[in-house]
Amino acid sequence: KSTPWDVKALAKAPKHEWLDKKSKVQSLVYKGLPYKGKSTRVFTYYASPSSFGVKGRKFPALVLVHGGGGTAFSKWAELWAKRGYVAIAMDLAGKGAGRKPLPDGGPDQGHPQKFSTIDEPYENQWSYHAVANVLLAHSLLLSLDEVDAARTGVTGISWGGYLTCIVAGVDSRFKFAMPVYGCGFLRENSVWKASEFGKMSQVQSDKWHKLWDPSSYLASARMPVAFLNGTNDFAYPMDSYAKSCALVRTEKNYSIQLRMPHGHIFDFKEFFSFADQYLKGGVPMPVVSKPELKNGKLTATVKASTKLVSARLHYTTDPHAKNKSRPWMTKELIVEGNNIKGESPPKEATAWYVDLTDSRKLLVSSEVIVR
Q1: For residue 289, pLDDT beyond 70
Q2: How many Å apart are CA 312 and CA 281, to the nearest integer?
Q3: pLDDT value at position 56?
Q4: What is the spatial distance between Cα 310 and Cα 225, in angstroms, rounded to a whole number?
Q5: Which of 47, 143, 170, 346 shows the smallest number of beta carbons within 10 Å?
Q6: 361: left (phi over 0), alpha (psi -120 to 50) or beta
Q7: What is the distance, to the nearest Å, from the Cα of residue 234 to the centroid of all Cα atoms in its chain?
């Protein structure tokens, strides 16, 4: 599949310069792609477990992709380094330390750069640079001695989750991807449906959808994907989300959480267990099959290496357009070994799913079923 990116060129480690190699969380700049005819540099925090007393010669590594209103977060890199991962967190808004604009930074991450540039060359559009900068950060990591090149993953939050969905389909070198909130089909239902896509002509909307919507890339993902979102997310609603998840043909896991808040939240415990599972050989998270309905009864099977403690059915009967405010009803389900059973959701349910908690108090769920 052809994409706007020269993936081969982006697989080479970019030229970089360390700004601070003395602090526990270090910083550097690396060379990005040209923007409006000028060369760019990307500001980045880098954290290694060795700076925090974690022993090892080769570490697994994560690329951390911030969302809208975010920047390179040193705290985020530090959090993962303390857990035994090399972590790289780059700024995707043309800014440096303390969010100061870089003289040679790439595009800012406002809505004009994301949506209003659709008639301009790729090179003037934010999504083009943001995805390229994630791939370049990955190539940089892979070139470093202390990184185990066979164990790298990517995770992103909000717009970073959106980017993670695209990157999963573009960069097959990652061993796992964990988008938080972000998804595709944004013109069909999302917080930008009216405000941004509503202003575009059909031709512009089609072009944006083909070039920059994650739905154009998710089916190409070659690695396991762990999807995390909240039922009432203001930006990425459950109908668009379910359609996006369905495109992925590799191993999938879900942690759909009731009314999960939206923000740059770095420490959901499920994040750590998913990463440990795929990059450190940690105890796998349970996987819930697609629930089946028959004669008013719901059944689902679970693949699990931990004990299952409880399970619930969650459903809503309100329309998808009201994703942010619609109420969800919850019913307890019965857990018998690795099987879940109970009453079916009502026929008028517009979206529903099953979740379960295991003996580690970790929450996973089935896919969301949308009607």
Answers
A1: yes
A2: 28
A3: 86
A4: 24
A5: 346
A6: left
A7: 16
Entry pTM: 0.98
What band does 1 get if pLDDT is binned at 50, 70 and 90? low
Measured CA to CA, the distance from residue 363 to residue 270 in angstroms comes to 7
Which whole number is the average pLDDT over 346-364? 98
DSSP letter (8 states) at residue 345: P
Position 340 pLDDT exceeds 80: yes
Beta strands in the chain (DSSP E): 16-20, 25-31, 41-47, 59-65, 86-90, 147-157, 176-180, 225-230, 252-257, 287-288, 292-294, 297-303, 308-316, 329-336, 339-343, 351-358, 363-365, 369-370
Q: What is the DSSP letter of 23?
A: S
H helix runs in the chain, sequence order: 7-10, 74-81, 111, 126-142, 159-170, 202-212, 238-247, 269-279
Note whether 310 and 217 are within 8 A (CB): no
Contact 293, 370 (CB under 8 A): no
Helix (H, G, I), strand (E, B) or coil at 62: strand
